[in-house]
Amino acid sequence: MKQRLRLGKISGIPLYVHWTFPLLIAYFVYDGMSRGMDTTELLWLVGFVLAIFGCVVLHELGHSLSARRYGIGTEDITLLPIGGVARLKSMPKQPWREIVVAVMGPMVNVAIATALFIYFLLTSQGIFDTIPEEADGLVIDQTNFLSWLFITNIGLVIFNCIPAFPMDGGRVLRGLLALRFRRVTATKIASYLGRAFAIVFAIFSFMPGGSPMLILIAIFIYVAASQEYYSVQTEEALEGKTVRDIMRTQFTLLPIDKGLNDITPYLTSTAEQGFLVVESTEEETDLRGIITRPTIIRALKYHKNKGHFLLKLLSRFRKVNDGFYIRELMNTRIEYVDPDFNLQQVYHQMTHQQTPVMPVYENGEVTGVVDYYQIREYVKLNG
User: Fold this and answer.
1) For the segment 1-49, what is each residue's pLDDT rounded down to a tens digit?
2) Residue 136: which pLDDT band, with cuts at 50, 70 and 90?
3) 269 and 309: one domain?
């Protein structure tokens, strides 16, 4: 989700398009050209694809605006080649509210299909009259554009009603199951169904007549279903917990003036994934930043494989200490947490900011750290 282009805002919700989305357009253009389409036919085909994704945006807005009624905001909406994703800040914990939010997406497509159906009735036009019975691939023109738009919206409704995560039908199923079972149990059932459907889609993609797009959809469904279960498992494991319940009081401080080669022993003597970087004077020791284990390892590998010439060049201007300094690689943005902070919120913040460790500040000093990977281990043991 990192490589995205912002298109603007709809109802105050940022709208992005993923960098892979133009590949879908390129695929349809290539497919059309290989079938001998002229420029006009290609424009109708591309216009149809864009219209479908316009319906997808409206679908995701259905989720977002219904969630807003329950006080739940939406981070953003992102268009992917396989559909759209609305990142809600949370899902309603009440089962019936979750069902409403899940249903409102497909209901938008039902509304679009209904409007088109009324149009066909008023104009006495048959929905399937202008669609060729035998055609080499998808053929779109001004006569059948709305017919295909109607059919596709019906298809979106049917696909999203599959009772498995991450489809809307899976969220409805989870909501119904949550009326009887624990939320994490309901999520586990819907998640396993989602992964089962993903495997079926993957199998069909390799069968005669199968589409390569199915394997992409299968991968997306499998990953999303697994992540949803882990997310709910995490919420339940961290329910009512504070930073104090899990923080480490034993942690490593790295001097800011050390070279990377000087801190190699720290990597082998501890399993910590993030280190606090400090600058010490005769009077006090100040926290200056955070550096992660992967950052140090990447820098060491670069220095070993590619950095020798650069290192020699830098050594002409300053002392390099046989490696790069920590100060050059550390993250200087430090966010302190209080030991009584809600652990769920802190974990969400660490995930969003990709921060492996946060210093815990109490009584005017750093008394510990909260570790992202330690939280994940805690969830595995208690989820």
Assistant:
1) 457 788 888 888 999 888 888 888 888 888 888 888 888 888 998 899 8
2) low
3) yes
Q: What SS3 class is residue 34?
A: helix
pLDDT at site 172:
92
The answer to whether 169 touches 72, Cβ cutoff 8 Å, is no
Residue with the two structure tokens 């282009």: 5
Closest to 7 (Cα-Cα) out of 44, 54, 43, 59: 54
Cα distance between residue 26 and residue 31, in whole Å: 8
Got the DSSP string for 193-214? HHHHHHHHHHHHHTSTT--HHH
Domain carrying residue 255: 243-382
More confident: 380 or 192: 192
Question: 358, 339 in Cβ contact below 8 A?
Answer: no
Provide the mean pLDDT of the chain: 82
- Count of domains for the chain: 3
The string of DSSP letters for 77-115 reads: EEEETTEEEEEES---SSHHHHHHHHHHHHHHHHHHHHH
The Cα–Cα gap between 321 and 38 comes to 64
**What is the rounded distance in angstroms from the CA atom of residue 212 to the CA atom of residue 112?**
28
270 three-state secondary structure: coil
Q: What is the pLDDT of residue 308?
A: 52
How many CB atoms within 10 Å of residue 56?
22
Could you give the CA distance from residue 316 to residue 304 in angstroms, rounded to a whole number?
19
The tens digit of pLDDT for each residue in 364-378 reads 788 888 888 888 888
Residues known to be catalytic: 60
User: How far apart, in whole angstroms, are the C-alpha atoms of residue 235 and residue 215?
Assistant: 30
What gap in Å lies between CA 42 and CA 46, rounded to an integer? 6
Cβ atoms of 228 and 87 closer than 8 Å: no
pTM: 0.72
Residues 6 or more apart from 310 whose CB is under 8 A from it?
Answer: none
- Whether residue 170 is contained in a domain is answered as no
8 A C-beta contact, residue 317 and residue 281: no
Do 22 and 111 reside in the same domain of the chain? Answer: yes
32 and 152 belong to one structural domain: yes
- Enter the tokens of residue 49: 């694809």
On whether residue 80 sits in a domain, the answer given is yes
- At 98, list the tokens: 């979750």
Bond from prior residue into 81 cis (ω within 30 degrees of 0): no
* 197 and 286 part of one domain: no
